[in-house]
C-alpha cells in the first residue's frame, strides 16, 4: 500500500500511533501537544474545532519510524534509500485519482495550524509542490511551506537556486505564471523522496516509487497537467504568480525565527480531497521536520563518502546539530588515512554543515556521549583541529553572515593516533556483559 492511510495502519499495529479523540484547536494546541511527544509517537487528532478534516503529526519522528516508512530495518535505512535513488523506476499512471472524491475552491476549509507565537500566521508545513522542469521536460517535487493570505492565495517559501525556484524564474522571464500542483497527506516515502535534493531533471517520484516497491500510482491534475500520487489526501493546483510577492518569516529547523523574505504567491484554481480526509502537519524544528530534511542528506553523505573512502563505516547527522549542521563520520582508520581530507570532502558534500567530527569504528556516531568520549581521549587540538574560514554555509544559521551565506567551519579528528600504544585507547569490556539482563536479577 502506498498512501498515508496504509502507513497509519502499520503504525497502529506496532503501537506507534496514538489517537486523540477530544476536540482540539489549530491555534497552538496541536503544536503544543505534538511538542510534548516529540519523537515518541505519531499522533492522530480525530476532532479539529470547526473542521471536518482529521490531522496527523510526528509521522517519522524517530529513526525507527523512518525505517518503517521506507520498508527497512533501522541499520539499513541508507542502503534502502541509496538503492532507490540509484535504481529509481517510473510509477504507473491511472485515469483518475482517489483525491478527486471531493472538490472545493476555498483553502479556509483546511485545518492549517498556528505553531509559534511570533510567526505571521498559520503555515502548511507538509506541502509538496510539483512543477515541470523547463529544460528536461521532467517533473520535480519538493517541500515548500505555505502561508495562507486569503481563501485563494498562499505565499510560497522558495530557496533560491533550487529546482522550483529555477522553474519559476524561467517562467517569469517568459512573462508567464508557473502552473503547479500541491499535495498534503501522502505516504512518508513520498515525503522522504521529495525532501531529497535530487540532480537537476531527476523526478523524485521515481525514487519514491522505488522505495515503495514499484506500487506507486499517479493521476493527472486537470488544470496544471502535473501527475501526483493517486492516494494523496489533499491536492491543490493553480499557479505561482509572476508579479506578486508577500513578506513572511517562519520558524526553521533550528527552531529559530528566519529573517523576513519577500516570497512568491500561489493562486488556487482547484482543491481536491478524499472522503474523511487526513491533513498532515509537521512541527517545525522538532524531530519529524529534522529527520525528513536531514535523513535524505545523511543517505547522500553515506553514499558519497563510502565511494570516495572505503574505510568509511557510517555517517550520522547529529540530533544536537539539528540533523543539518553537524556530522559525525565513523571510519576504520588505516596508516594512510588522511582524516583532514575526509573532513573537507564531507563539507563539500553537504555545504550547510558547520562541524564534522571523525571517530573510530569502536565509537557509536549516533551517541553524543560516545562521540564526546572520543574527543576527550583521542583528540589533540594542536594537530587534530581544522578551521575553514569565510566559506559557504547554511542560510538558517543565525550566527553566520546570512546575507552572503558565509560561515566558519570546524573539523575535529577524534580518531586514535596510530603512532601511540594501541592498548591505551582500547575500551575495556566485561566478558558476557551482553548476556546479562538486570530483570533476571531484580525480580521482586
Write up what this structure looks like.
This protein has 444 residues and is α+β, with helices and mostly antiparallel strands. The strands form 4 sheets. Strands 5, 6, 7, 8, 9, 10, 13 and 14 form an 8-stranded antiparallel sheet that branches. It has a 5-stranded mixed sheet with strand order 16-17-18-20-19, sandwiched between helices. Strands 1-2-3-15 form a 4-stranded mixed sheet. The protein has 2 domains: 281 residues, Electron Transport, Fmn-binding Protein, Chain A (Pnp Oxidase, Chain A); 112 residues, 3-Layer(aba) Sandwich (UbiD C-terminal domain-like), CATH 3.40.1670. The longest helix is centred in the last third of the chain and has 22 residues. Helix 4 packs across helix 7, helix 4 packs across helix 8 and helix 6 crosses helix 8.
Comma- or semicolon-separated keywords:
five-stranded mixed sheet, eight-stranded antiparallel sheet, UbiD C-terminal domain-like, alpha+beta, 2 domains, 444 residues, Pnp Oxidase, Chain A
Question: Secondary structure elements and their pairing?
Answer:
Layout: H1 4-14, E1 17-24, H2 29-36, E2 42-48, E3 54-57, H3 63-69, H4 77-86, E4 92-94, E5 102-104, E6 128-132, E7 139-143, E8 146-148, E9 153-156, H5 163-173, E10 178-184, H6 188-195, H7 204-211, E11 217-220, E12 227-229, E13 234-248, E14 261-273, E15 278-281, H8 287-308, E16 312-317, E17 326-331, H9 339-349, E18 355-360, H10 368-378, H11 381-384, E19 385-392, E20 406-413
Helix pairs in contact: 4-7, 4-8, 6-7, 6-8, 8-9
Amino acid at each position: 500500500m502506498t498512501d498515508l492511510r496504509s502507513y497509519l495502519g502499520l503504525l497502529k499495529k506496532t503501537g506507534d500511533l496514538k489517537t486523540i479523540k477530544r476536540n482540539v484547536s489549530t491555534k497552538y494546541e496541536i503544536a503544543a501537544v505534538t511538542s510534548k511527544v516529540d519523537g515518541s509517537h505519531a499522533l492522530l487528532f480525530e476532532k479539529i474545532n470547526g473542521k471536518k478534516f482529521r490531522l496527523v503529526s510526528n509521522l517519522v519522528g524517530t529513526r525507527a519510524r523512518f525505517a518503517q516508512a521506507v520498508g527497512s530495518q533501522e541499520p539499513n535505512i541508507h542502503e534502502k534509500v541509496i538503492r532507490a535513488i540509484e535504481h529509481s523506476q517510473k510509477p504507473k499512471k491511472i485515469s483518475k485519482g482517489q483525491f478527486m472524491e471531493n472538490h472545493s475552491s476555498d483553502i479556509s476549509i483546511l485545518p492549517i495550524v498556528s505553531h509559534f507565537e511570533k510567526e505571521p500566521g498559520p503555515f502548511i508545513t507538509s506541502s509538496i509542490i510539483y512543477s515541470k522542469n523547463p529544460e528536461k521536460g521532467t517533473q520535480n517535487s519538493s517541500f515548500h511551506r505555505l502561508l495562507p493570505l486569503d481563501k485563494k492565495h498562499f505565499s510560497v517559501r522558495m530557496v533560491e537556486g533550487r529546482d522550483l525556484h529555477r522553474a519559476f524564474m524561467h517562467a517569469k522571464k517568459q512573462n508567464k505564471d508557473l502552473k503547479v500542483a500541491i499535495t498534503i497527506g501522502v505516504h512518508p516515502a513520498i515525503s522522504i523522496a521529495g525532501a531529497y535534493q535530487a540532480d537537476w531533471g531527476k523526478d523524485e517520484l521515481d525514487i519514491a516509487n522505488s522505495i515503495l516497491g514499484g506500487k506507486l500510482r499517479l493521476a493527472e491534475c486537470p488544470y496544471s497537467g502535473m501527475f501526483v500520487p493517486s492516494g494523496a489526501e489533499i491536492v491543490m493546483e493553480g499557479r505561482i504568480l509572476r508579479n506578486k510577492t508577500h513578506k513572511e518569516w517562519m520558524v526553521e529547523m533550528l527552531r529559530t525565527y528566519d529573517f523576513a523574505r519577500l516570497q512568491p504567491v500561489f493562486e488556487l484554481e482547484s482543491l481536491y480531497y478524499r472522503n474523511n480526509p487526513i491533513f498532515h502537519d509537521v512541527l517545525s524544528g522538532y524531530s519529524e521536520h529534522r529527520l525528513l530534511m536531514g535523513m535524505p542528506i545523511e543517505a547522500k553523505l553515506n553514499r558519497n563518502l563510502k565511494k570516495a573512502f572505503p574505510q568509511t563505516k557510517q555517517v550520522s547527522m547529529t540530533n544536537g546539530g539539528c540533523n543539518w549542521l553537524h556530522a559525525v563520520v565513523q571510519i576504520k582508520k588505516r596508516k594512510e588515512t588522511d582524516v583532514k581530507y575526509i573532513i573537507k570532502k564531507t563539507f563539500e558534500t553537504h555545504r550547510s554543515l558547520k562541524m564534522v567530527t571523525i571517530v573510530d569504528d569502536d565509537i557509536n556516531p549516533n551517541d553524543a556521549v560516545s562521540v564526546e568520549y572520543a574527543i576527550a581521549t583521542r583528540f589533540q587540538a594542536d594537530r587534530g583541529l581544522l578551521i575553514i574560514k569565510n566559506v559557504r554555509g547554511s542560510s538558517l544559521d543565525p550566527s553566520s553572515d546570512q546575507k552572503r551565506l558565509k560561515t566558519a567551519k570546524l573539523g575535529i579528528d577524534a580518531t586514535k593516533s596510530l603512532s601511540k600504544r594501541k592498548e591505551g585507547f582500547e575500551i575495556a569490556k566485561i566478558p558476557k556483559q551482553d548476556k546479562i539482563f538486570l530483570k533476571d536479577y531484580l525480580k521482586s
